[in-house]
Amino acid sequence: MPGQLLLVDDEPGLREAVQAYLEDSEFNVNVASNATEGWEKLQSNPPDLVITDIMMPQVDGYQFLKQMREDPRFKSLPVVFLTARGMTKDRIQGYQAGCDAYLSKPFDPDELVAIVENLLERRASSEKGAEGTDIEIIARQLAEIQQILKQRPAIAQSDTHIKIDLTPREQSVLDLVAQGLMNKEIARRLETSVRNVEKYVSRLFSKTGTNSRTELVRYALEHGLTK
C-alpha cells in the first residue's frame, strides 16, 4: 500500500514541485499551505508521515511539531523538517523538538524520497513488533468493550441529537470495533490492511472526540451511532 503523506509548506512553487515528485514516487500526498490548515487535515485524514517547512507565518514548524507531539494520536508520527536554515544549531533544535529527519533547502528530491521510505519502513517494523508486546493492552480493551456490551441495555441514549458524518467504511469499522474486534480482525473482515484500519479508527477518534476504543464504543452506543 502506498504511504499517505501530509506536506505543509507556505511556498506554492516548492509545495507543488515536491508534491508532484512524491506522487511520481507512488505516494499519496495531501497538502496544506500553513500549519493551521495542516493541523485540520492531520485530524480529518491522519497520514503515515508529515513533511513540514519550519519557517512559516503565524505558526512555525516547531510549534506545529509541538502540537503534534502533545496529542497522543500523533506522538509517534514520523515528521520530516524542510528548511532553508541548515546551520548545525538549527538541525540540533529540530531534533530536540522531536523531528525524525531534517532536510535543508535546496535538497535532492531523491534524498527526500529515501528518507520518507526509510521512516515508513521503520514505522511499519515497529508496529509489527509491537503487536506481540501489547497483548495485555489488547486484552484489557477487549474486556472493557465486552463489559460495555453486557451493560448495553442500561446505557441510556442521549437526547441530544448529534450529527456525525461517517463514510460507509468508517461506519463498518465502528460497527466492528463495537463488536469487540481488534484491528487485525477488522482488516481481515473488511479485506484491507491493518494500517488502513488504524487510519479509520483514528478518524473515528477525531470525529467523536474520544481517545480510546472503549470511549469510542460507549460514545457510539450513547448516541446511537452503532447497532
From TrEMBL:
Keywords: DNA-binding, Phosphoprotein, Transcription, Transcription regulation
Sites bearing 4-aspartylphosphate, chain numbering: 53
Pfam families, sorted: GerE (PF00196), Response_reg (PF00072)
PANTHER family: REGULATOR OF RPOS, TRANSCRIPTIONAL REGULATORY PROTEIN TCTD
Segments forming domain HTH luxR-type: 159-224
Keyword DNA-binding among UniProt keywords: yes
Domain Response regulatory, chain residue ranges per copy: 4-120
Protein name stated in the entry: Response regulator
InterPro entries from the UniProt entry: CheY-like_superfamily, Sig_transdc_resp-reg_receiver, Tscrpt_reg_LuxR_C, WalR-like, WH-like_DNA-bd_sf
Domain of life: Bacteria
